[in-house]
Amino acid sequence: MKKKSLIIHESRMLMLLICLFSAPLFAQENNYSQKSDFWNHVRFGGGIGLSFGNNFFSGTLAPSAIYQFNRQFALGVGLSGTYNSQKNYYKSTIIGGSIIGLFNPINEIQISAEFEENNVSIDWDSRTGFANENYWYPSLFLGAGYHARNVTIGIRFDVLYDNSKSTYADPWMPFVRVYF
């Protein structure tokens, strides 16, 4: 009788252990499928810029990612880094981040709002007489463009533009936006 009771007890313990250890495995499988579904909605893109001439050089790298909620709405984040220099005048670095919202009322039209915050560091050549500068500068762009597949071409306007502090030469800026 004791042997039969021991076997039943061991069987119950084995079943309990199987249940305890298999539940996390199913939970992990379920979490994995949810994660893979998330990544199916994420699109990556960004920008690269290079400009030079007459003792001037500028280079920009700006990766970004958006989450496509549906065919009309997307929300994303981006990073940017720019280095500028003009011989015997100045060197500057601009590092920042942004949050972007995209809305397509119809497939061919894209409306955007993008908040960008940049840290600007300017090292002036001592011959200019200017003091070195380091400051934060915000930009809020409202834009519209023509959208086809992964590319949008349009124009945007910085509603917070300040001629003396902005990291851009003009509040109106054309853009090409690509997300894969």
From TrEMBL:
Native organism: Xanthomarina gelatinilytica
UniProt KW keywords: Signal
Record lineage: Bacteria, Pseudomonadati, Bacteroidota, Flavobacteriia, Flavobacteriales
Signal sequence interval, chain numbering: 1-27
Keyword Signal set for record: yes
This protein's name: Alpha-ketoglutarate decarboxylase
